[in-house]
What we know:
Blueprint: E1 7-13, H1 18-33, E2 38-44, H2 56-69, H3 89-100, H4 107-118, H5 126-137, H6 141-148, H7 151-166, E3 174-179, E4 184-188, H8 193-216
Parallel strand pairs: 1-2
Antiparallel strand pairs: 1-3, 3-4
Helix pairs in contact: 1-8, 3-4, 3-5, 3-6, 3-7, 4-5, 5-6
Amino acid sequence: xxxxxxxxxxxxxxxxxxxxxxxxxxxxxxxxxxxxxxxxxxxxxxxxxxxxxxxxxxxxxxxxxxxxxxxxxxxxxxxxxxxxxxxxxxxxxxxxxxxxxxxxxxxxxxxxxxxxxxxxxxxxxxxxxxxxxxxxxxxxxxxxxxxxxxxxxxxxxxxxxxxxxxxxxxxxxxxxxxxxxxxxxxxxxxxxxxxxxxxxxxxxxxxxxxxxxxxxxxxxxxx
Length: 223
């Protein structure tokens, strides 16, 4: 496993997922708490029709439920939802394209998510998602839009979605923690920092223990 830190945390997300929105404070907290110790990355996990609400009324019901569970002082806006749209490719591809153009932090995808679930904008429109990303990052829409629509970017999103499905989970967000010594933990549907932090602490302690043993004792016998 090639990584720059003893532990890597991968966040599988869908831009228009409300539970991913609720998980963002935890993601930000973890990045701050474990800066320099954990390698952080996110990957797109596209939702299909099975993960989408079937009506705006149903979407609003889900939002009321999750808002209460998260103790949110605001309710999400379902205005982004469009009946008959089974997959929201544009917002996810725009976020991925922005990363390919150098926006390696969370600004672009958070701006698109906010445009959707906070402002209720129709982010299934390429221009709407591009405008949100460009306002947050300063990217040129004339550069971002064709990149987002390219087969290469769609292929990246399809491949990471396939990787997500290979985990045999269905909930977004899903967090996958992996260490250099081969440990792996999958937390699917987790949106709070505490359980993820517990996993990271355990993995970091074990990785440090292996490193200490290697320094004092060396590797195992050949035979």
